[in-house]
Amino acid sequence: MGFMDNIKQLGDLKKMRDQAMEVQKKLAGIKITVEHRGVTVVMTADQKVASISGEADFEKITEAVNEALKQSQKVAADEMKGMMGGLGIPGM
């Protein structure tokens, strides 16, 4: 592997990093709202709870947060899949 190959790899890594940062910004801007058993949870797709409202029952809040996490993970996976497909990485 020559010097130019190393330079190209560094450029590819920078491009991947930049794309990952763009996806992260996009995920932070996507809001997911889950209403579950009287509790409303708003979470960003980068899995940060923005708000919780409704009944103050710990079990119901836990279930609602877990459902919001599940949905945010699906959105994040879909966004990452789109990014990886654009990179032309074999096996992705």
TrEMBL record:
GO terms for molecular function: DNA binding. InterPro entries: YbaB-like_sf, YbaB/EbfC. Signal peptide: none annotated. It comes from the Bacteria. It holds the Pfam family YbaB_DNA_bd. This is Nucleoid-associated protein.
